Amino acid sequence: MPQRRNVLLIVVDQWRADFVPHLGAGFLKTPNLDRLCREGVTFRNHVTTAVPCGPARASLLTGLYLMNHRAVQNTVPLDARHTNLGKQLRLIGYDPALIGYTTTTPDPRTSGPRDPRFTTLGDLMDGFRSVGAFEPNMDGYFGWLAHQGYTLPPRREDIWLPEGEDAVPGVTDRPCRIPAELSDSTFFTERALTYLKGRNGKPWFLHLGYYRPHPPFIAPAPYHAMYAPSDMPAPIRRARWEEEAAQHPLLRFYLRGISQGSFFHGAGGAATALQEGAIRQMRATYAGLITEIDDCLGRVFAWLDENGQWDDTMIVFTSDHGEQLGDHWLLGKVGYHDESFRIPLVVKDAGRNDRAGAVETAFTESVDVMPTILEALGGSIPRACDGRSILPLLDGPEPQGWRDHLFYEYDFRDVHYSRPEGELGLGMDDSALCVVQDARYKYVHFAALPPLFFDLQRDPHGFENLAEDTAHAGLVKDYAQKALSHRMRHAERTLTHFRATPQGLEERGVAAPPAMPRAAE
Fold first, then answer.
1. Among 3.90.1150.10, 3.40.720.10, 3.60.15.10, 3.30.870.10, what is the CATH number of 6-400?
2. 257-294: per-residue pLDDT in tens?
């Protein structure tokens, strides 16, 4: 196997798994992602272990479940004691570069209340070196636009309004006002190429983040018109949103409260007002944003080809979380539905091509990305890490003892832009759920609200709650116990393998450390 020298971790935002052509989305044009799928392994049953962005990226980059890292919502701090992928890469001689964002609120004990980072949605995670930041407040991008000679409007976000003075904000078939050559996706790509060209042949690790297909759902020309709404899959939902809301109090809160404004810049009104035609147009725009990213990745992949680095670069493609896109009458990433949690994962590892083009069905989670990259580079996987390396799945079938279910969490406590606690009558620490899901059943446990239970074989989209059905009482008990056992096994364990003995400190269950690899220069 050739020496691993480079890693490209591509993290897009809000890209759900069923919008990957290799997994069946034949209506999409993504030739560069298609190439990566042909040369790597695509994971069909992959989930983020938390939503929204901040918690999701904390899990992705620390390898910890929400229950352990406790950055439970956007704007909630990440404890400085936790290690992460960037810090671990530094231990083996890499200088991990980051383009994009991590939506990390810093530990307030390391700073003070007047620190400007506490006035934003998130900042950059410690351990990475920014070579193209988007946070805070997208200043890097807007500054780049101004430097390119583009005249910014007084309210900078108006660049994403529909083109034309007579345009009405909201779902639209018009392009946004910013041209594709000045879009945020182009900005990230330019930053990536600038970084790669400056490496001068030295090994590198690059977290390449993209903001899209995150809202606002409006694409630059020509991507705005690349897909016809009629070619988009129809939304999966009951006939009326009130029928969906009757399933659970949390769902009722979101269906009554989600505004279109966060998804279509300048728009108002509730998401439940979107009819099927508007949903299909929104999805066509979402698909256009996806193809724009794919074209941008094509520029990065072409540079790797031209400079002889494609074959010895490990490439991991994933998203932070999914997007409801009108399914269940919802927008965004909320609650417990698959559309919010199922995300793409494609891995092409240098020297591993026995399963090129395979679609792997084993259960994988976002917490697996960190240990996978560390093992591939010869690093040590921290004891506290909740994930496990998926390198064995790149070489052959699912190994014995692999996980038999997926586990993910959502904390819905009050934040400044969403306040469910009062309406639901819950305290801050009661506003949480976890999901245990396998091929047949899905169990949703709430800290202080009624549970949910679905038979995915009969009801794959989770419309019929069986939690109160006496015929399923035994299964509900079994899955509740499975959820509890999962949490107990993964309780924080940084130091639990040490013990004091008459002979001194003993470290249990740890093999002799591997020889240190030659440091990346």
1. 3.40.720.10
2. 988 888 887 777 778 989 999 999 999 999 999 999 99
